[in-house]
Amino acid sequence: MSRTVTRPADSPTCAGAPVSAKKNRASSAKQAARQRTAEIRAQQEAAERKRRLLLAAVTSVVVLAIIGAIVAVAVLDKDKPSPAAAGAVALDAAALSSINDVPASAFAAAGVSDQITNGPKRVKDAPAATRDGKPQVLYVGAEYCPYCAGLRWSTAVALGRFGQWTSLTESKSIQEAGLDPLSTVSFSQQNHGAAYASETLTFNGYETTTSEQRNGQFVKLDRLEGQDDATFKKYDFPPYVEGQGGSIPFLSIGGKTFQSGGIFDVRVLEGKSTQQIATALKDPQDETTKQILSGANVITAAICEQTGNKPADVCSSAPVKAGAAKIKDHQ
Question: What residue intervals traverse the membrane (predicted)?
Fold first, then answer.
């Protein structure tokens, strides 16, 4: 009499429970085949479970990576300028033209003011800073800085004698040191689109922060890079400057001559808009214009030393020669 073996549905597959020795011998080949099939199926199921576990693990890693990236972006984003700061107002064509095309007669009439007491200094044996075979002018400042506001005006006008500004944005310093906010331009190339072209020299401009404060700190803007960073950290610190160093504004002219700090009394900028200051640049009788152009004549003289006195009509002019007298050798 045969017996039937009942098994749970989830138990391993059985190739038929033995009933008698005779039947076992007759069905041994069939049983072996079924057993092999069962083993293969078990292996496949185990592989599928392993695949699912691996997929779950990979998915978890990806999710964690995405979360980490979101957190990192959020942390870094706190140092970025706000949308308002990033969307600086572009200088209109008329104001840009006023900066680029100051008449030679206005420079001559302005001359060099006695108020220019902090002129650039030459550093003997300093290596030349060039790009594309041209002397490089490097500016480092910050948009909140009132003394940077003045140096930017003189530098912008001076560079207009060697090339053309194709883009500048308006900027304003904060109220500081008894000074009202001062209207000026921004030299931020990385974030505010300052752009300059010349066949004679090159320009790199950095504004390290905006005028906006967030959590008690000025919002970061441009990051100094490569040799520009090295130049600033070397020549804006002792023994090349007095005090602790690292002050702004800072100007490197061809890597040979350096301006640390403001160049004229910036109080003449108070109460005027960027447009008003730019429009008045052709009038040397305007006191603001006189100081801006006076500083520009000194900066122009320092640039001419690096360009081989080119262009000749600029570098040989009387106001530029007078400006050269304000450049001293670093002792």
Answer: 53-76
